Each structure stands twice: as structure tokens, then as C-alpha cells.
Amino acid sequence: MRVLLNDLVPEAAAPGATVSDGTLAALYAHPEHRTRANMVATLDGAGAGTDGLTGSINTSADREVYTLLRDLADVVLVGAGTARAEDYGRPGPRTRPGRTRCPELAVVSRSAAVPPSLAEAAPDRGGVLLITRRGAGEAALVRARDLLGADRVLVHGDAEVDLAAAVADLAARGLSRVLCEGGPSLLADMAAAGLLDELCLTTVPLLAGGDAHRIAVGAPAGLELVPRLILESEGTLLHRFTRPAS
Fold this sequence. Notes:
Blueprint: E1 2-6, H1 21-27, E2 34-41, H2 60-72, E3 75-79, H3 80-85, E4 104-108, E5 128-132, H4 138-148, E6 153-155, H5 163-172, E7 177-180, H6 184-192, E8 198-203, E9 226-233, E10 236-242
Parallel strand pairs: 2-7, 2-8, 3-4, 3-7, 4-5, 5-6
Antiparallel strand pairs: 1-9, 8-10, 9-10
């Protein structure tokens, strides 16, 4: 990878420099009490390939940064629909030293339904938390608690999930470095709630066509972000956008 723009950690790498593994980690450092999203899109804005999955538009550079961002996070936040569609598993061990062996996975579900791929215990992988609302109903909440444990079902909000309260709950559990992996509805909701501090966006050199969703769909957000880091690798552009300095 080579650096095209670096306003975040200028001492780590100047524009034009080739990025090593250690430098990449410095460029993507994840401070405490910060929520970032990581998404991938094509040149025409599609957030998935023709099969509806992000895996079909990933590149090697995107996968490298994806792994790094998970290594740096305390918890990965994902919508239940995306977890089911992408067949999410519990997070595996970090590839570099971290605060814990594996990050946690927090799934947002209005219905309090635990995706089947996450229902089984896996002692060698990260744990699963379910974020839901009281409106899901007591029967659904009991089923989720039976599967995951009472302390792993976070109930915030009545008619809708209170994402701000959920993020605060995660921080109180020592999980303040939050990595949101979407999908599009959750990303839009996080941005609309003012909870998104930065966006790591990979743009792959592909014109997809079709009618795939954008990376954020649903709630109007209007969140202004500023490009602070741009890397390039074989046509793939890796951006790190942050909120403007106050």
C-alpha cells in the first residue's frame, strides 16, 4: 500500500511512502470511547456484489484492513440481518496482541432473535452480546437469555432500540472501542443518532451496476465527515474519514 493523504499521523508515513504492517496499525489506531464504521463499496456506490454479499467485492487490501480494524476494536457491532446474510461467526483470535484474545460481537436485533450461526458456544472465540428493545416481547427476551446468558442480552429502548444507551452500556463493560460493520440500516441509524465518530471506507475498482444498496440506507443522517487518510493498493482506495474538528 502507498500513502496518498495522511493528516492523521503525519510522523508515521508521508504521502508517497509505502506502508509496512506496523505503520498500518499506527495509521488506524483506535482510541478509547470512539465508534468507527468499516464498509466497502464499488465505484458506483454499491455496498455489495451481484450476489448481495460484500465478500464478492472484497480485495486483498480491504481484507487486510478489515482484519486490522477487528484486531484494534474491543467489540464488533453488527445488525442481525447482516449477521444472518453474511453468515457471521463469533470473532476469532486477534492476529496481533490486544487487550483480550478475541474481540466481542454485539448484534442489534429489534426482534431479539439470535442469528443461528451465533447461537452455539465457542470457547476459543469471542463472546456474543445481543442488543434489543423491550418491544421485542418477554418470550423472545427469555429465549435470547437462555441462549446467551442473562448478562449478555442488553435491552435498551421500547418501540425502537436505543443505540446511544447500548453504546454507553458497552463502554461500561470495558468495550469502548466500537467497530460497526453495518449493514446499511444500522450504519444509517448510528449516523443519525450522532454515534459515529469515523468511517473507514474501502472503494474497490469495480463498476457494479445492478440495484445493490448503498452502504447506508434508511434514517436520514446528514453527517459531515472529512477525509484524513487515503491509501491505495492495486486500484483499491482505503479511506479514513473523521468528524470535523470542533
